[in-house]
């Protein structure tokens, strides 16, 4: 068993909800399973390109009160959100959160609050999508990181939207890590349930402060009932000392629509794994993302989309830019079950390598058992187009700005998959800030582009 | 304006220009004609400073200054403009943004005040109107989905917006029908003034009916082989380039 340091018989006893029989049992089972599996190794197909080396080399401790109470001057976030939950190193911070103005039919609370107020609902819903059994063959494997999360879940949030309720303004969850003396680990467990024809948008941000090492291991379960519509946006801007592992399990029922976009712009080592099942006819998943890495950062996006029944659709666009000696992994699999006729699945991964030391390992896969489907996948890797660069420079645009313009246009294409305009704009600003300096008037450009699209 | 002396240039180790001499005075329009492979495009890229086009000898004096060590953007800021034979498509960058960045980059380099949004749009609208271009073409990504004629018109728009002192038109007539050719020629003629010069590189005489040159040069085998007035273009139209192809370098 890997040295996460503090996982033992007693570790669950101080966590939120300790003493609830079903939760104690779940944590015990998770601990036993993680103990048996250990950390994933490259021997596992789906972990071939990502090794959790920082977890070997570091002894993590549970979050101390001081780490949870770290002073935060400014909480990043969107303007115009309906409500906000903020965690610092895995501790709920009511002083930074905003939950006072929730519409009827919307339950949005921290795991801790929910365990205190309505544990029965949690008992009935938690684990329903992620399941305890290993994912079927063809999925992403043994789920050791899910087991670890189950053993240690200490934070996270619940979103439950009642039947027919349409929430217009986005909800926000912000995880802030860092500002600690010791290396800490935290384990958010998120549960999202949208009842029939409910609609919501959620923006999740994982933000790192550059002091202090930390390990975030999050699990998110999503259940979209018939006709529900959920937009799920995630910004991963972890620090260069962060190890970030997230596992998502989603079940998309009949005529429900799931749209996700993950923007990864920071983190020493990150792995985002999504297991999405289209379980009802007319279900749709758009699973998109962009990554920008530099230094020695490593970013892994692994997705498994199970088109389990006939007449489902999915679309996937992941684009990335890698500089220095950074590395990215894209493993995408679309699985079409035997009788899932008329499935329509698309997958595309494109990466720009800005330096000779950067590396992308890309593996788009289709596994199809039905005979009447439309599926396509593709991957490209390249460098900045020298002819385009010369064209811009020949018009007087300095080289650095010309490079930025080309990178921005490359990623801008992926960000168009974000249908929420305010989120798209906010994410574009993060893209711009990642770019090397000299990106003159870039902010103005973004708003121009948005105007023109509108 | 431009004085090229004994210019030698190579691409990937192969010498293409082999001692080219050319003098263009302010206000003059010179045509450079020649067979395929004679070095016409190489000359235009060398003047604009494209990477990979290496000057191995000679000098390019532009407005009293040697250009050879300047970056492409510096040359542009000093008033050199190359209209591309094959304008490049840049997905995701709106044409108007591209033009705005170009104009203000050049102004910054020259120490001039940048144009604000309103000033820029006003200036741009005036130029597009002159060229009979739609605003739609400004909103679209640079050259993406443009027809051949639209691409060339877009080159002329960039030229009109940047107001260069020395414009180099590299086979701007290729792929244009007669109407598009007239519009492009009108755009170039509108820029003619005693302070501006142009180098019109073309394979055919046709464009020169509309942009009437002061001088015509025949470029073959990396050198200017013959120089004459506009009537030389007509002669070439009749006799072709056969006389120049066989000559020893």
If you had to describe this structure to a student in words, what would you say it looks like?
The complex is a heterodimer of chains A (454) and B (249). With 454 residues, chain A is α/β, with parallel strands linked by helices. Chain A contains ten helices and 20 strands. Chain A has helices at residues 21-37, 53-57, 65-68, 111-117, 119-125, 144-152, 386-393, 399-415, 421-434, 442-453, and strands at 83-88, 91-92, 106-110, 157-161, 171-177, 184-186, 189-194, 199-208, 214-224, 229-237, 242-252, 257-266, 269-278, 284-293, 298-307, 313-322, 327-336, 344-353, 359-368, 374-382. Mean pLDDT of chain A is 89; it is low at 132-138 and 438-454. Chain B has helices spanning 40-48, 72-77, 95-109, 117-131, 136-139, 148-162, 178-191, 231-239, 242-245; strands at residues 2-11, 14-24, 29-33, 53-62, 65-66, 80-83, 90-94, 141-142, 166-170, 197-202, 215-220, 223-228. In chain B, the strands form three sheets. Chain B has a six-stranded mixed beta sheet with strand order 6-9-10-3-11-12, sandwiched between helices. In chain B, strand 1 and strand 2 (14-24) form a beta hairpin. In chain B, helix 4 (117-131) packs across helix 6 (148-162). The mean pLDDT of chain B is 91.
What would a concise description of this structure say?
Chain A has 454 residues and is of the alpha/beta class. Chain A has 10 helices and 20 strands. Chain A folds into 2 domains: 373 residues, no CATH class; 70 residues.
């Amino acid at each position: 068993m890997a040295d996460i340091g503090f996982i033992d018989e007693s570790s669950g006893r101080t966590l939120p909800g300790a003493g609830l029989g079903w939760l104690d049992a779940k944590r015990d089972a998770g601990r036993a399973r993680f103990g048996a599996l250990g950390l994933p190794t490259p021997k596992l197909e789906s972990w071939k390109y990502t090794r959790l080396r920082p977890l070997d080399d570091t002894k993590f401790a549970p979050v101390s009160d001081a780490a949870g109470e770290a002073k935060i001057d400014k909480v990043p976030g969107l303007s115009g959100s309906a409500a906000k939950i903020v965690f610092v190193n895995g501790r709920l911070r009511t002083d930074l959160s905003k939950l006072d103005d929730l519409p009827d039919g919307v339950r949005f609370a921290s795991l801790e609050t929910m365990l205190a107020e309505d544990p029965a609902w949690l008992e009935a819903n938690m684990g329903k999508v992620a399941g305890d059994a290993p994912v079927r063959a063809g999925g992403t494997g043994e789920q050791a990181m899910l087991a670890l999360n189950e053993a240690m879940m200490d934070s996270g949030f619940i979103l439950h939207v009642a039947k027919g309720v349409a929430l217009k303004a986005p909800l926000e969850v912000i995880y802030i890590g860092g500002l600690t003396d010791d290396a800490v680990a935290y384990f958010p467990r998120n549960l999202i349930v949208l009842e029939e024809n409910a609609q919501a948008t959620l923006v999740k941000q994982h933000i790192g402060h550059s002091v202090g090492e930390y390990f975030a291991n999050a699990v998110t379960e999503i259940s979209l009932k018939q006709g529900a519509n959920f937009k799920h946006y995630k910004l991963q801007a972890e620090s260069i000392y962060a190890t970030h592992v997230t596992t998502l399990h989603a079940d998309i029922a009949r005529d429900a629509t799931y749209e996700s976009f993950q923007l990864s712009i920071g983190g020493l080592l990150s792995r985002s794994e999504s297991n999405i099942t289209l379980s009802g006819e007319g279900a749709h998943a758009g699973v998109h993302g962009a990554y920008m890495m530099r230094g020695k950062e490593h970013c892994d996006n692994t997705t498994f989309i199970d088109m389990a029944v006939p007449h489902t659709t999915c679309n996937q666009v992941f684009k990335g830019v890698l500089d220095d000696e950074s590395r990215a992994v894209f493993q995408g699999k679309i699985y079409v079950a035997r009788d899932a006729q008329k499935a329509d699945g698309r997958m595309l991964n494109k990466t720009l390598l800005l330096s000779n030391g950067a590396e992308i390992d890309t593996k788009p896969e289709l596994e199809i058992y039905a005979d009447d489907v439309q599926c396509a996948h593709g991957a490209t890797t390249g460098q900045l187009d020298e002819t385009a660069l010369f064209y811009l420079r020949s018009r007087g645009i300095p080289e650095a700005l010309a490079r930025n313009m080309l990178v921005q246009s490359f990623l801008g294409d992926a960000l168009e998959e974000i249908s929420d305009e305010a989120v798209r704009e906010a994410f574009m600003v993060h893209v711009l800030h990642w770019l090397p300096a000299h990106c003159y008037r870039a902010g103005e450009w973004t708003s121009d582009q948005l105007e023109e699209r509108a | 304006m431009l004085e090229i002396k004994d210019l030698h240039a190579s691409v990937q180790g192969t010498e293409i220009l082999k001692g080219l001499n050319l003098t263009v005075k302010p206000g003059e329009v010179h045509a450079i004609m020649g067979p395929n492979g004679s070095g016409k495009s190489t000359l235009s890229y060398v003047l604009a400073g494209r990477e990979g086009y290496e000057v191995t000898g000679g000098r390019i004096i532009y407005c009293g200054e040697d250009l050879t060590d300047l970056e492409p953007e510096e040359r542009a800021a000093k008033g050199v403009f190359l209209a591309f034979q094959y304008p490049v498509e840049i997905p995701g960058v709106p044409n108007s943004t591209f033009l705005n960045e170009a104009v203000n980059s050049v102004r910054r380099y020259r120490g001039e005040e940048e144009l604000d949004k309103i000033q820029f749009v006003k200036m741009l609208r005036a130029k597009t109107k002159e060229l009979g271009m739609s605003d739609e073409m400004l909103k679209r990504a640079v050259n993406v989905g443009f027809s051949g004629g639209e691409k060339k018109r877009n080159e002329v728009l960039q030229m009109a917006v940047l107001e260069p002192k020395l414009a180099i038109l590299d086979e701007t007539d290729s792929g244009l029908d007669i109407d598009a050719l007239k519009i492009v020629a009108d755009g170039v003629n509108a820029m003619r003034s005693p302070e501006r010069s142009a180098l019109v590189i073309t394979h055919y005489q046709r464009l020169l009916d509309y942009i009437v040159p002061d001088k015509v040069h025949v470029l073959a085998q990396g050198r200017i082989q013959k120089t004459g007035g506009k009537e030389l273009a007509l002669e070439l139209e009749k006799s072709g380039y056969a006389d120049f192809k066989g000559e020893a370098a």
